[in-house]
Amino acid sequence: MAKTIAIDFDGVIHKYSNGWQDGEIYDNEIEGCFETIKSLMDDGYCVFILSTRSPDQIKSWLLPRIMISEYERDGVGNDPNKWVDTRFGYKCKVIKKSDKFWNEKYVLGITNRKLVATVYLDDRAMIFNGSWGDVATRIKSFKTHQEQG
User: Fold this and answer.
1) What is the pTM of this model?
2) Low-confidence ranges of the chain (pLDDT < 50)
């Protein structure tokens, strides 16, 4: 089975500095996210973005950040939405609803469904250590990296 990494969008890729704002993706990326994703892909990992947002909305936000338009590349043409090349060496696509796994290398998948992964990277996750003993206490005191200041 492929080594697959699921990465949360808000607060992990998208800065999300003001929390939920009517569903708009308003912020820039967190520094280093695309370089790290590229590094993981170069090492053979399959990577996808997991979010409750619409995958198409995320793809629209991603394209100008990871790809170059025909106009940017050639200085000709008048359609800046015609994406032809990548800045980071990978493309992105929305994962089909029928797909149960993400095994595509060098393509950043995007979904709003939880798929099987080796690791889930999320700013709101806690590791379950096999015991429910202190879970309630840990949940009550949990803070995201933004809240920790």
Assistant:
1) 0.88
2) none
Q: How many domains does the chain have?
A: 1
Q: Which amino acid is at 32?
A: G
CATH of the domain at 58: 3.40.50
In this prediction, residue 2 carries a pLDDT of 81
What confidence score (pLDDT) does residue 78 get?
Answer: 57
Nearest-angstrom CA–CA distance, 13 and 20: 14
Angstrom distance (rounded) from CA 87 to CA 33: 13
Range of the domain at 93: 4-148
Give the pair of three-digit tokens for residue 132.
């429910």
Q: Which residues of 59-70 are buried (b: 16+ CB within 10 A; e: fewer)?
A: eebbbeebbebb
pLDDT digits (tens, 9 = 90+) for 79-89: 656 666 678 88
Q: How far is CA 110 from CA 41, 53, 69, 77, 80, in A?
A: 15, 10, 20, 29, 22
